[in-house]
Amino acid sequence: MIYDLEYETMPREGLEAIQLRRLQATAERVYATVPFYRKKFQEAGVVPGDIRSLSDIQKLPFTTKQDLRENYPYGMFAVPMDNVVRIHASSGTTGQPTVVGYTARDVNTWATLMARALAAGGATRGDIIHNAYGYGLFTGGLGVHYGAEKMGASVIPVSGGNTKRQIIIMRDFGPTILTATPSYTLHLAEVAEEMGISFQKLSLKFGIFGAEPWSEEMRNEIERKLNLTAVDIYGLSEVLGPGVSIECHEAKKGLHIAEDHFIAEIIDPNTGEALPYGSVGELVFTSVTKEAFPVVRYRTRDITSINPEPCICGRTLVRMNKVSGRTDDMLIIRGVNVFPSQIESVLMETEGVEPHYQLVVDRQENLDMLTVMVEVGEQAFSDTIKPLQDLESKIARNIKETIGVTARVKLVEPKTIARSQGKAVRVIDNRKI
Ligand code: DLL
After folding, report:
1. Which end of the chain is least crowded, N or C, by CB within 10 Å?
2. Residue 422 in contact with ligand 1 by CB distance below 6 A
3. 255 HSE (CA, 13 A, CB side)
């Protein structure tokens, strides 16, 4: 179902006219209300009136995570605090959290975009949504919650954690949609199995998973284990929260960007140069309707490409491909660029390996050493050593062949790698210390 037929299927020409008008208004407003932007614009020698076409967006300066940090906590807000009704923050594994704000209108826009997203992911008014994204400063829980209510579905606000209780709720309350991070979803599957509850017998039809990178192979694994159709949802606090883009369940091939609210660009992360459709690079967003916390050319650090091809679902909104990683997650192992998702793909294609892994990077005598820790099933550990050694060498060989990096593979016993309640920690890089 398409929730917002007018905007989601608008002919490109009309959509681009709306984008330009909204972009011009946003440039005017941030220039007038946020000292940071005024200064940045002046340094770049640009004034809002210079935006005459959509490509003029390239004249505007970028905004980075560092800029947000320097204006912590409220320096980037474009409205007085008495117009702000909600505050969220992204945890940020390093340094200060990023604080974002919403006016009442922003909260409403977000709810509408999330209703759109949930509908694209297969939800309808009649559905019961088990929402296992964390409620709190993280945008996942409340983002889904407001969208579900807006569309008229029933939402179970279960949040993350207390996994056994979640399984009982899933068995008894009959949810038809699951929303959670992919890594927590796998944990749910595992705990259900321990409790002797089969997902094959539950009523789930769709899962709307995101907030962290996950590979196609991980999707297959989740769909098989949970007996549902899994779609990818993307977003980030700085731009909105979840709902910036969503896969349609019809195609499951790329995430439609809510372009009437966000203008997306792909840039070369090294030079900042804008790249054409199809090129892989860093995703950059400009919000064009947000009031409290507008962002101009915000560098997400997420790596993807944009596909403008029409989609079978009828939406005219361009699609971004699955995010393959972040510029700051990319590991450089002896000069080779490696994204955790590439390793994940290799692991998931290997029989006998469980979808729980962690990458550890050390530096020994000036050489980078990548260790891939991955769990194997109960069965494998009761066997003799030889098959385990063979499996380790097989994985190491596949990693070498497909990614070109030498890794030490360490098979570990079931349930030894820490389970996430939200976003999984995939990389431990000891080199930074
Ligand atoms: O993770 C918002 C969200 C909540 C999205 C629930 C989807 C579902 P932050 O905590 O600010 O916001 O983290 C944003 O998470 O820049 C990406 O690096 C990563 N991320 C989010 N969704 C995806 C996804 C929420 N589908 C950061 N695939 C982003 C890959 C994702 N990475």
Report:
1. C
2. no
3. 28
Q: Which residues, 6+ apart, have CB-to-CB distance to 241 below 8 Å?
A: 88, 110, 139, 140, 142, 143, 235
Q: Kindly state whether residue 214 falls inside one of the protein's structural domains.
A: yes
139 lines ligand 1 (CB under 6 A): yes
Residue 340 Cβ inside 6 Å of ligand 1? The answer reads no
Last residue of a domain, one of 282, 308, 328: 328
303, β-bridge pairs: 282, 325
Q: Does 76 share its domain with 127?
A: yes
pLDDT at 94: 57
Mutate to test the pocket of ligand 1, among 116, 129, 139 (most ligand atoms within 8 A of CB): 139
Predicted pLDDT of residue 303? 96
- 266 pairs with which residues across the strands? 275, 283
Phi then psi for 53, rounded to 5 degrees? -140, 170
Angle at 393 between CA 331 and CA 390, to 5 degrees: 150
**CA-based end-to-end distance of the chain:** 50
181 touches 211 (CB < 8 A): yes
- Ligand 1 atom closest to 238 (CA): 11
The per-residue pLDDT for 385 is 84
Q: How many CA atoms lie within 13 A of 90 on its CB side?
A: 20
Does any ligand 1 atom lie closer than 6 A to the CB of residue 326?
yes
Same-domain pairing of 353 and 292 = no
Residue that the structure tokens 């790698």 belong to: 417
Mark whether 305 and 341 lie in a shared domain: no
- Residue to probe by mutation, ligand 1, list 178, 302, 427, most atoms within 8 Å of CB: 302
Residue 386: inside a domain, yes or no? yes
Could you list the mean pLDDT of each consecutive 10-residue stretch along the chain, which spans 433 residues?
A: 98 98 98 98 98 98 95 97 96 77 98 98 98 96 98 98 97 98 95 96 97 95 97 98 98 98 98 98 98 98 97 98 89 86 93 93 88 90 82 95 93 92 91 67
- Predicted model pTM: 0.94
Structural domains counted in the chain = 2
Boundary of a domain, candidates 328, 358, 379: 328
Q: What's the domain range around 343?
A: 336-429
Alpha-carbon distance of 340 to 268, in angstroms, equals 20
- For 275-323, write each residue's pLDDT tens digit: 999 999 999 999 999 999 999 999 999 999 999 999 999 999 999 999 9
Ligand 1 contact via 77 beta carbon (within 6 Å): no
In this structure, which long-range contacts are made by residues 105-109, counting pairs with CB atoms below 8 Å and at least 24 apart in sequence?
105/291, 106/290, 106/291, 106/292, 106/293, 107/146, 109/261, 109/289, 109/290
